[in-house]
Write the structure tokens for this entry.
Amino acid sequence: MVGAQARRWWLRALPRGAAIGALFAGVTAYQTRDHVTQIAPDFALQDLGGHRVVLRDYRGKKVLLHFWATWCGVCKAELPSLRGLARNLAPDEALVTVVEDSEDVEAVRRFAAKHQLSYPILLGERAVLRAYGVGAFPTNYYLNGDGSIASTSVGISTRLGMAMRLWIATGSP
């Protein structure tokens, strides 16, 4: 009797699971429809210290390029995951973040200090956000060592999720 009940449960659960998976895939495809899909557009942006940072200088490393905003609640919820990821990156990996609301550099510096953000924070420009098709925050691009885009995601991610995407999408051994 138990075996028959288990089979019936699975027969009911499988279509629901497939529907949820299809819905997730559809939402993801819609959210990333405007994203760049081949080579990451190069850019040069200022970091919080006033230094010029050029994306191509990260060639040879697998990069999580993270677009976010200080006013974004989901971005704030993701900060512990980003801090943990940044502390545990391999030598051939990098986390580079681009903050959207860069008009008030001092406000971004205070935000970074308050939340103990020690990874690179670049001051975003509209042209860079447009070049990457960023329409929602947070948006992540996972780049291979040659600068090609392995995958993208929109919305909250866990530290494990980001680490796995970086590891899987960029062909780590």
Remarks:
- The two ends are 46 Å apart (CA to CA).
- The longest helix spans residues 2-31.
- Strands lie at 44-46, 52-54, 62-68, 93-99, 121-123, 139-143, 149-154.
